[in-house]
Specification:
This protein is mainly alpha-helical and 255 residues long. It is built from eight helices and two strands, in the order αααααββααα.
């Protein structure tokens, strides 16, 4: 609740604060992913990724989607050139992990900043919070109470088809209400977006679970006791933010 209150305060009074909050969350995630790859012997430059992440966040807030795209296009070759200073040994693994980390965290996280940029940033981000919260909360509750059939046993044994159905029902309801009462849009748009968010959030959770299994980690970090690290909190958010941004752009241009 305190995090939601911080998001609301930032967006209601000074939207730049929200961009800073997103940037800090991304930097914490960068620290975790650098440590995770280090366990497997893959080198990533924490300093270089931190600088690139700050640059992407700054460019996104000031330049919108064009700023995000240009900053990413510049950052990738710069990071690869920086890796050349270490020589050829392990270069492919480090280059691949570095590019993945840049795209997975600051690039995808940049869409949270894009959601907040317009004057309606408060409404857009709070709608996003409703959608992701409905998916995660009710998927977990229904899964714990009724889950018997694993959705992806090799990746996330605790995630069930029953939990997915719970996510679908309640996220569609939440999307319908949020779009009608918060976004002042037609209810059926919220229902469609709700379905999309269930898909993206579930995939985001499975992607992060696959990462942890491949890296032989229980949690990506220990920042939040009992809840893992920052990446464990951002998994569904990072994949869903671009989806909602795209959906709102389509609605704005076509409806």
């Amino acid at each position: 609740m305190s995090l939601i209150a911080l998001i609301w305060f930032a967006l209601a009074y000074q939207r730049e604060i929200f961009a800073v909050v997103v940037a800090v969350a991304v930097l914490l995630g960068i620290r975790e992913i650098v440590r995770a790859f280090k366990v497997r012997g893959t080198y990533l430059s924490l300093r270089a990724l931190v600088i690139a992440s700050i640059a992407l966040s700054y460019a996104t807030w000031n330049g919108g989607v064009a700023g995000l795209a240009i900053a990413t296009a510049i950052a990738i070759p710069v990071l690869l050139i920086q890796l050349l200073t270490r020589g050829p040994e392990g270069f492919v693994a480090s280059a691949t992990a570095t590019t993945f980390s840049l795209l997975y965290l600051p690039f995808l996280g940049g869409f949270l900043i894009l959601l907040a940029r317009p004057d309606t940033g408060l409404e857009r981000v709070m709608t996003f919070v409703v959608l992701v919260s409905c998916n995660d909360t009710f998927g977990y509750i229904v899964g714990v109470l009724f889950g018997k059939h694993p959705l992806a046993p090799k990746i996330s044994p605790r995630k069930s088809w029953e939990g997915l159905i719970g996510s679908l029902i309640f996220t569609v309801i939440g999307g319908t209400l949020a779009f009608y009462y918060i976004m002042d849009m037609k209810w059926w748009i919220g229902a469609v977006v709700g379905l999309m968010i269930v898909f993206t959030a579930t995939c985001g959770d499975l992607i992060e679970s696959a990462m942890k299994r491949d890296l032989a980690l229980k949690d990506m970090g220990t920042l939040l006791p009992g809840h893992g690290g920052m990446l464990d909190r951002l998994d569904s958010v990072l994949i869903s933010a671009p989806a909602l941004w795209l959906a709102l752009e389509c609605v704005k241009n076509w409806l």
